[in-house]
């Protein structure tokens, strides 16, 4: 097995973890009027999904020969490589992920929930579809 083959396997394994977290986020997003607890769960599933999303991008790009060291670098290179379409929204998602990890108040949670539903979840869904298509030709 070549290094490239090992990298291919790594990103596919990471994708499987992303797929599971994304499925949970999808269920949470389906709740139209979440309670405070459900909103917290939605945000937690978003944090997990986002974390795995940038890591699967990193692993995919590593397999393609890039050396990626950070979420920001993964997003920028994924955009340049055509893995994702909306780099600016992904960078905003990174900022919000960092915000949700360190602070929690109800008004911030509601605003983050709105952005997850309108922008971040659709981008995660596009990434899921794009990478799934690259696994199954």
Automatic annotation (TrEMBL):
GO terms for molecular function: transferase activity. The keyword DNA repair does not apply. InterPro entries: HepT. Transmembrane segments: none annotated. Keywords: Transferase. It comes from the Bacteria. This is Nucleotidyltransferase substrate binding protein hi0074. It comes from Desulfoluna butyratoxydans.
């Amino acid at each position: 097995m070549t290094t490239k083959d090992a990298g291919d396997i790594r990103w596919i394994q990471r994708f499987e973890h992303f797929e599971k977290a994304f499925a949970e986020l999808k269920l949470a997003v389906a709740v139209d009027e979440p309670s405070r607890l459900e909103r917290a769960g939605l945000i937690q599933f978003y944090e997990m999904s986002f974390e795995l999303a940038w890591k699967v991008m990193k692993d995919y790009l590593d397999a393609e020969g890039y050396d990626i060291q950070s979420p920001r670098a993964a997003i920028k290179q994924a955009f340049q490589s055509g893995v994702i379409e909306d780099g600016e929204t992904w960078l905003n998602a990174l900022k919000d992920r960092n915000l949700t990890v360190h602070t929690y108040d109800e008004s911030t949670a509601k605003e983050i929930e709105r952005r997850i539903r309108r922008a971040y979840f659709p981008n995660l869904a596009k990434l899921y579809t794009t990478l799934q298509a690259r696994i199954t030709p």
